[in-house]
Design goal:
This protein is an alpha+beta fold. The protein has one domain. It contains four helices and seven strands. The chain has helices at residues 8-56, 72-77, 149-152, 203-206; strands at 107-111, 135-137, 175-180, 183-188, 198-200, 236-239, 244-246. It has a seven-stranded mixed beta sheet with strand order 5-4-3-1-2-6-7. The protein is elongated and about 95 Å long.
């Protein structure tokens, strides 16, 4: 019996069907990866919130009645040992230089309270980036990130907010961005160690400020920011206590 071969039309149909199936599989795979990265960033944000609230529960400057997690020094303590030299691993990928990050590395950024609108150093030749950045990456890489409180805390563009202390009673909002694999999750810290912060993929949901917060020199409630309210981060940010960086794998 003579075997009948496939016709050209049949082969084209098979190729088209296989192409459609492959496209569906690729799209589905990408969706799974994106959900996985978002879940990873969300878990990192929740873990950070739990740890910083656990630290705050011991009180501010020895006062057990002041248990506000919005303390810049607590953020530094998450990056280094209490003696200022021993690095700890509370923040994943904090020990990786920004130039060595990959798309799957976790970036943890904090919104700077710089109210002067300082511009970062001049962008590299050919760069089209001109907008100022107020996001600061929390890292502990020697020569790339300085954890000295005199450089890391304050109102400079590369610093993190000082937050509440024994001499500052108002509570400024703290906003963090956790980014991995192109997915960003935000954390807005609570004012109480017993109350979880707000974790959300929406910046406006997580970091809205508080109607009870006061800014420096103010006597009426404000939105809780000493400077501008947070905007979505880009691949241009500062390393803590250091300079301008362009993240090529953002």
């Amino acid at each position: 019996m003579k075997r009948k071969a496939f016709t050209l039309i049949e082969l084209i149909i098979v190729i088209v069907v296989l192409g459609i199936l492959a496209t569906i599989a690729i799209v589905g795979y990408r969706a799974v990866i994106e959900r996985s990265n978002q879940a990873s960033a969300e878990n990192a944000a929740k873990s950070f919130d739990r740890q910083i609230r656990a630290q705050a529960a011991f009180g501010i400057d020895g006062n057990p009645n002041q248990t506000n997690p919005r303390q810049g020094q607590l953020v530094l303590d998450m990056l280094k040992g209490l003696n200022g030299t021993d690095l700890i691993k509370d923040l994943p990928d904090a020990g990786v230089a920004s130039e060595s990050l990959t798309s799957n590395s976790l970036r943890v950024l904090v919104w700077s309270n710089d109210s002067n609108g300082l511009m970062p150093p001049a962008p590299p030749s050919g760069s089209e980036y001109t907008e100022p950045t107020k996001w600061v990456r929390l890292c502990n890489v020697p020569a790339f990130c300085y954890l000295d409180p005199t450089m890391s805390l304050g109102t400079n563009a590369y610093s993190i907010p000082v937050g509440v202390t024994s001499t500052i009673t108002w509570s400024e909002q703290f906003c963090f961005a956790f980014r991995k694999g192109g997915q960003t999750v935000y954390l807005g810290l609570s004012e109480n160690a017993n109350v979880p912060g707000v974790v959300s993929a929406s910046l406006t949901t997580a970091c809205t400020g508080s109607a009870t917060d006061l800014n420096i020199g103010e006597t009426t409630p404000s939105t809780g920011w000493t400077g501008a309210e947070p905007t979505a981060p880009t691949n241009v940010y500062y390393n803590i206590g250091y300079g301008y960086n362009t993240d090529s794998t953002w």
